[in-house]
TrEMBL record:
Keyword Transport belongs to the record: no
Function: GTPase that plays an essential role in the late steps of ribosome biogenesis.
Entry similarity comment: Belongs to the TRAFAC class TrmE-Era-EngA-EngB-Septin-like GTPase superfamily. EngA (Der) GTPase family.
Quaternary organization: Associates with the 50S ribosomal subunit.
Name of the protein this chain belongs to: GTPase Der
Species for this entry: Pseudonocardia eucalypti
Record domain EngA-type G: where: 38-201, 213-386
Amino-acid positions noted as binding GTP 1 in the UniProt annotation, renumbered to this chain: G44, R45, P46, N47, V48, G49, K50, S51, D91, T92, G93, G94, W95
Ligand binding (GTP 2): 219-226, 266-270, 331-334
HAMAP family in alphabetical order: GTPase_Der
CDD domains (alphabetical): EngA1, EngA2
Amino acid sequence: MSTEDTETETWSDEAEFALAEQADDAAGEATEAAPPAPVLAVVGRPNVGKSTLVNRLIGRREAVVQDVPGVTRDRVAYDAQWNGRRFTLVDTGGWEPDARGLRAAIANQAELAMETADAILLVVDAQVGATATEEAVARTLRRSDRPVLLAATKVDDERLVADTASLWSLGLGEPMPVSGLHGRGSGDLLDAILRALPETPREVVGARAGGPRRVALVGKPNVGKSSLLNRLTGEQRSVVDSVAGTTVDPVDSLVELDGQTWRFVDTAGLRKRVRTASGMEYYASLRTRSAIEAAEVAVVLVDASEPMAEQDQRVISMVEESGRALVLAYNKWDLVDEDRRLAMKRELERDLVRVQWAERVNVSALTGRAVSKIAPALRTALESWDRRIPTGVLNGWLSDVIAATPPPVRGGKQPKVLFATQAQARPPTFVLFTTGFLEASYRRFIERRLREDFDFVGSPIRIAMRVREKRQRNR
């Protein structure tokens, strides 16, 4: 956040200095990782109501839902809990065995989800019945060594329950009637899910004390976010297509980089302002913003082969305002020539002056160029984001800075900075106790010197002022 947006408050008692020194130290402490949870994969053909049912099972609206087939494209994990037990629920795109092109890639994601799950939930539209696609899916699932549950959706009232009897023909056991829209039968289905899931998952990937650091991968549509994620993971983790806007839901992936496990979230490209977007794009924008808020560091992907667009600026501003650490990754570097490099230098000086502190890397998701530099950039940014300066060190440093360059006179008086403390980390936030208002230019000067002397690379810095109240004179 810019120092222009500094919070200003007042103080009157020097005892507040002692309280300020007891600022929240817990911000810098890592929380213990929760034990790994078993995984349930939700599969079925397009538009049978999988995402609606997922929202019902997890008890919140997270999966993007729209009355159009093919909204969900990647496999998307959600944390769920029922009767005191945790499990991970993986929503998938529509599965069509004979699909081609983009639909084939979506179907492949569903197959990968089934391979890594501990149990599988096949969702069938009870009002349509078993189609040739469901029969083909059922043949595959009968050969699986995973427990398989069968949910008949869109059973919104008692009259439709009889229609589910025909689904016995799939050979997957008793079809469970449920309504994702109204919640009918969802409790019974959740009980059956807990019986089918093991206590612990078959595979524990990337588990470590403190949990993986959370990274949001953001940028405008078709800038190469999913391609970069696939390059980092070494597999087709996200659906990639030349059509902009292929990713809709945020996609979580555990990625091993330089011997460290990271949790990357591939997000939908931000095409419009949230207030002017509609339907699927509106909810995708909200989830992208939520993914940034839930992350610790954001990698903003920018197309290096094109001039910086307003969308790029808006995404960077969103990350900056959220107070997250920032890495700018210029993708498609293999398409950049000498003229474009000169133009980029001018763009950096003109358009990115407010985030000159961000880490920058030049990469190519297509060729793999310099993707190994992303992990060191992430570590540098997070170290700055976590950094705390002891109060004594901070005040000794500030005294030297102010002695060399005093604050400008305001209203005929020169304000004094009496005391300073770091109120919190993540992002580093400093409070200055003063006798008068400090000009924005001087606060920017303090921020710049903090960055230079304490190496706050890749992290925003927030500076708040507390101006001493004027005491009333007794007449």
